[in-house]
Q: What sequence folds into this?
């Protein structure tokens, strides 16, 4: 079952993947800390002059979809599967 959200989350720890792409490794959501153990798909979306990235990250049991404003400051939780 997929739960859909559109709420900002706080990134507590970042890591880097291939080509030095920033990947969240720990977030705070609803007062809980979630550590990601695996990352999945990454997609870049262009709207006019702005770019956004959507990432799939797993905590080992659930998959979280996060969106970045591509400036490194704002992350939004889009859904949990």
A:
């Amino acid at each position: 079952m997929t739960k859909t959200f559109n709420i900002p989350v706080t990134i507590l720890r970042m890591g880097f993947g291939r080509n030095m792409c920033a990947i969240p490794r720990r977030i705070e959501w609803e007062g809980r800390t979630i550590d990601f153990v695996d990352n999945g798909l990454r997609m870049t979306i262009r709207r006019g002059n702005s770019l956004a990235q959507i990432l799939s990250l797993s905590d080992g049991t659930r998959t979280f979809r996060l969106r970045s404003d591509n400036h490194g400051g704002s992350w939004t939780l889009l859904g949990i599967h």
